[in-house]
Structures are given as structure tokens and as C-alpha cells.
Amino acid sequence: VLAAGGLWRGWQSGERRAFLIAGLTLGLSQFFYTTGRLTPILLALWLALLALHHRPDRARLAGLTTMLLAGAAVFLPLGLLYVAHPEELFFTASRVSMLIPGWTAEAAAALGTSAPGLVLEQIWVTALGLTVSELQGVYYASGAPLLISLSGVLFFGGLALCLARFKQPRFSLWLLMLAGTILAGGLSIQAPNSQRLLYLAPALAMLVVLPLEQAWIWAGAQWVRGRTAVLVSGAILLAVMMAQNLDLLFVHYF
Question: Pick from 158, 250, 141: which is nearest to 192 by CA?
Fold first, then answer.
């Protein structure tokens, strides 16, 4: 979130400090959970979309150079470790990946499908884990999808808004995060795996609240007197969603 926010602000204003924050957090993202490896890939794709939307000028190119140098400096110790011990780069992935040599073909044969068919099925099941399928995983198997009840309904509203405006970078980022994480989850065993989907939490929070934001914007333009009602309604919906999730986690799961 910080890396994307810094890149967005820097791209809009040319502010060098914003690019620096983006670079620092981009480098730090590689020190944490394995799905953090998606961050540079997704930001590179998003940067291409930003460049199509606003052609890079001298200030933006200088800011990007700052971002890349800062990210490289932070990543350097970990990069040197991977150079000395390349097997560590994919250590976690090698234990949970569908691409382990020989494993996928055997699993596909046992299920009566092909290896590509099994991978596609895993991707589909991972996508269903957002709102339909029960999450799996060693550390968290709640017996429910990632988004439940009201938050699932609002998610589809936010997804529709993003799809309708996918050419705008502030909406396309969340679609890239969705696609990248679902693909990564589909290439992992035990789909839909809660650990793979953890990366999606910020994007899903944005998508869930997006319909409420659009209702607020609409009220400001078309129904000024009703803005208080829209604000109160949005607050109630958020409170209900929080209560539903707290109930699932602390009452039913724990």
C-alpha cells in the first residue's frame, strides 16, 4: 500500500520524497511473506499503465530513478544472500507450489484431468475463495470465504466499478492485485489457501468501501441535503460488516 501510494503521489506531483517512500517500501516488501514478491511485478505493470495515462516527463523519470535506487539499496543484503544461496529464493514456494516437478502430473491423473486443467481448476477455486469457497490452510481455516455476507455484496459492487473504469490507474491497481494474487493462489496447493490470499486484504478493503465512496460523491453532486443520510448509512454498513467479521473470528473460529 505504501509503495503504490508513494508511486501514485510521485507520478501525479513529481514529488521526489514520494518516489523515495515508494522505493524504500518496495525494497522492504521483499523481506516478508513470499507473496510480497508480487509487489515489484504488479507495480511494474501498473507503472506501464500510468505511463500510458500520463506520459513520463523529466521529473517523473528522475523520481523513478530515485525509487529504483532506494529499493535496490534496501534489497541489497537480501539479494546478496540469494546470490550466495539461490535455493533460498524459492524455498517456501518449493514446498507449496503446484509446479513441483512430477507432483502436478500425478495429482492431475489421480483426479482424472490434465496438469493444465488442474492448475486452471485451482485458479478458479482460489477466485471462489473470495466470496464462496471455504478457506483452507495450516494457520487459518475459518470454514468461510475471505469476504462474508454484506462485505461480499459490496465487493461485487466495487469490482463492477473498477471493471467499468479499468482504464483509470486508480482503479486498475486493484484489478492487478486481484489477478496476480488469484494466479499465485492457483499455482499453490490446498486452494483456496488463506495464506496466499492475505496479500489481497488492502485491495479488498478498497473494493468493499468503493460503492460507499461513490454514493458519497453522488450525494454531493445530486442530493446535497441527503449527504448526512448517506454518511450515516455508510457508517452503519461498516459497523455491521465489522461485527460480522469479529463474530466469525472470535466467536465461531477461536
Answer: 141
pLDDT for residue 33: 83
Where b means 16+ CB within 10 Å and e means fewer, 225-252 reads: eeeeebeeebeebbeebeebbeebeeee
Question: Angle at the Cα of 177 (from 176 to 181), degrees rounded to 5?
Answer: 115
**Residue 129 predicted with pLDDT over 70:** yes
- In this structure, what C-alpha cell is assigned to residue 169? 490507474
pLDDT of 101-114, one tens digit each? 666 767 777 778 78
Among candidate residues 50, 64, 49, 72, the one with its CA nearest the CA of residue 16: 64
- Please state the pTM of the whole predicted model: 0.86
- Give the per-residue SS3 of 161-173: HHHHCCCCHHHHH
Q: Which of 64, 70, 24 is nearest to 44 (CA)?
A: 64
Residue with cell 467479521: 245
Q: What nine digits make up the cell of 75?
A: 534489497
How big is the chain, counted in residues?
254
Q: Centre a 10 Å sphere on the Cβ of residue 92 and count the other Cβ atoms it contains.
A: 14
